[in-house]
Amino acid sequence: xxxxxxxxxxxxxxxxxxxxxxxxxxxxxxxxxxxxxxxxxxxxxxxxxxxxxxxxxxxxxxxxxxxxxxxxxxxxxxxxxxxxxxxxxxxxxxxxxxxxxxxxxxxxxxxxxxxxxxxxxxxxxxxxxxxxxxxxxxxxxxxxxxxxxxxxxxxxxxxxxxxxxxxxxxxxxxxxxxxxxxxxxxxxxxxxxxxxxxxxxxxxxxxxxxxxxxxxxxxxxxxxxxxxxxxxxxxxxxxxxxxxxxxxxxxxxxxxxxxxxxxxxxxxxxxxxxxxxxxxxxxxxxxxxxxxxxxxxxxxxxxxxx
Length: 306
Fold this sequence. Notes:
Blueprint: E1 2-11, E2 24-39, E3 44-50, E4 56-65, E5 68-72, H1 78-93, E6 104-110, H2 120-132, H3 136-141, H4 149-154, E7 160-164, E8 170-174, E9 185-189, H5 196-206, H6 211-226, H7 230-248, H8 253-257, E10 265-267, E11 275-279, H9 285-290, E12 296-298, H10 299-302
Parallel strand pairs: 3-6
Antiparallel strand pairs: 1-2, 2-6, 2-7, 3-4, 4-5, 7-8, 9-11, 9-12, 10-11
Helix pairs in contact: 1-2, 6-7
GO molecular function: kinase activity
Keywords: Kinase, Transferase
Organism: Winogradskyella marincola
């Protein structure tokens, strides 16, 4: 049996504008996803996906003919269609992938709730890319799309800066980001799973990002990484929220939902759902619970320690 593992992801700065070349701060999470592969003589590709509680949330089998997936055996649904697309694309990138093999039993194991938006898709893409011995960024581009920062997180054990160059190629730099005030940082789940592909599509339809905006976000990212002051960190995040809010014509999450919160609240990734980053001198669990939000995760619990 062969096992592949990938880390989950959180985008601290640069949401949306990372698609246009802005430098972003991205952080791999402790929670990820593994993929286990075992060869057999079944002439099928049998697939089981387990959630963080060990329950099967997807299961199907595909017939194989010299490595080519011909059809699903058990049921044909959106997940099966998407999985077949990923496998087919992996075979386009590496024609030897699955060829002349008799069959495989594959299982995936999530370490986080798949509604959290920590990278169910990106960790799968990176694991399949490892299995197929192909470039994960290329596989992502031909399937889900996006900037690729989530693939970079899947492949790293430390915070990174991520940026697309003029040729849309990823520039990934591992960094030392271990703020002295990390015990005052919390991730809060908004209970509204966002489809990143929809968010990307909506952002691109705006078609109005300027070089000035990119430069402002780049500067905020650099200062966010360097600052040792929580007050400065909060000021930078607030400025970032205002810039992206104006760009999207949306109200920042704090003024919209948490106006009375004693601290900073910043959207992460796709605005309107998934996690936000909150700053607070004490655990703000009671405050957010009063708002109907029960998932409040301290920074050190979510993020790989340095």
